[in-house]
Amino acid sequence: MSALPAFSREWHLTARPHGWPTQEDFALREASVSAPAEGRVLVRNLHFSVDPYMRGRMNDVKSYIPPFKLDHPMDGGAVGVIVASNAEGFAVGDHVLHGLGWREYADVPAQHATKVDPELAPLSAYLGVLGMTGLTAYAGLFETASFKEGDAVFVSGAAGAVGSQVGQMAKLRGASRVIGSAGSDEKVAYLVDELGFDAAFNYKNGPVRDQLRAAAPDGIDVYFDNVGGDHLEAAISSLNVHGRATICGMIAGYNDTEPTPGPRNMAMIIGKRLQLKGVLVGDHYGLQPQFVKEVGGWLRSGELKYRETFVEGIENGVDAFLGLLRGDNTGKMIVSATS
Fold it and tell me: Which one, of 223, 241, 230, lies nearest residue 264 by Cα?
């Protein structure tokens, strides 16, 4: 075992953001590093994930996942290499996926570390297309929304990590039409030209309801919601009878300081007999073997494509997160912990 570093840099939340987070709500601090205790491994993080759900964890409210503690290191998905091991079955040099991101070195209980193979896929893919975001897309579309061949599908936030996978998976399983919304003309072109969406629009170019109606004149059967707000209202208008909506995220309202108004057309849910259902990936880990087999096959064949947006250096971790909230990323936003 080589000499361990004396310290590790880690990001702490220092204040609860009111509205949009700012750099002043965070601090990059140093923590001492020691050899792992029995049953634990010390991991040098190579990449860690920043995700929209983390904004909710910055608020001191009860939710499906505990809030971040003030003046403690934040956490989230990370992948790295073991530099010291005191756990059977884990060796120095093994690559692992775990949940202690936002830091350079992580002292991880072995039972919470999963070995990954850098020969099968780039390590960063285990944070995205082969990780939590990919499984979210897979479960939310095929299980929560009960997608079936021939469905017309609308995806909001379609150029993001989850949305870009949802649209492609729907096409691969036989969707009649896939429509996506995104926040720039460049992303719209990416969805249609590279990912094979049938249509896409820039939600900044006009009312979402009008643009969706033009892109899906025969309506939609499934809506995968990553945005909320006017996108959800537009989808309710365009959903056909017995349509289904998976509510995965509502990033449009994450930084609002007042309660976000609900859709004004919710009465349509009754007449159309719509189903709107939330999805949390933690409820669907039983799908993991099926997900890895099917999605892994699509990746090997080149049928499923993905992009990643990298920000280099742990010192730029908060910049990456703020950029994610602004929509600066295409595909998965990832911080490479060592610049």
Answer: 230
